[in-house]
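quick one, two chains, predict together pls
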Amino acid sequence: MTSPKTHPLKTSSMLALLVVLNSAGNFFFGLGMKRIGSLQGWSMAALHHAFVAVFSSVWIWLGIISMLLYMVALMLVLTWADFTYVLPATASMYAVVALLGHFVLGESVTGLRWMGVALICIGVMLVGRTPSSTTKKS
Amino acid sequence: MRTAITLAILVLAGTGGDLAVAHAMKRLGEMHSFTPAAISRFLGRAFREGWMWIGLGLMTLAFCSLLALLSWEAVSFVIPANALSYVTGAVGGKYFLGEQLTPLRWAGIGLVSVGVALVCLG
């Protein structure tokens, strides 16, 4: 029995989902940790206080859920797509975060960072022009 | 020396973990259904794969190395240096997973690695 052919849209949609979930996870973790503030020393009491603060934050839990969903989506896409195809595509997250930072949050982005964003985009496009799977399907 | 060794552990354990999980997923075969029941069955099968647990162990080691490295080095050094993982991942994908890396894919991975390093340095 031959397995059904993989639709290119299936791979692209999953890669987009990976980038969204990873970006959302990092965003929620960042927001959560900013609201909690920096750690007040390394005593047991301070660590206990930080632990309670971290795990009672809604943002941290949203981050954990996003990252767990990211892991499941990554596992799913790796059942049919090459690791060396998926890995560079997930780096689009760095470009998305820089673009969001500039256009949504109004952060200043340096020339060096824009150059990095451009290289990531070109790199992802080049990898995207190669077949998503080069190994024999089981 | 301490930084070099910890960075090597971070890159190698991180790459090893990703490759082990990718290997486990390849053994499971392509998923065609994405219903909650199908995904639950898939996760049940995935966690019965030995490679999955090896991968999770290596990822945990990489995460601990990352935390240790961040405790004495600047983020602006650690994250760009970790972009080396894209290159080690490509080498591992070729020799461990048997994927075919064309010059185009190598070029893309190289650009992404340099791009990530620039974004983090910038």
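Chain A has one domain: 9-128.
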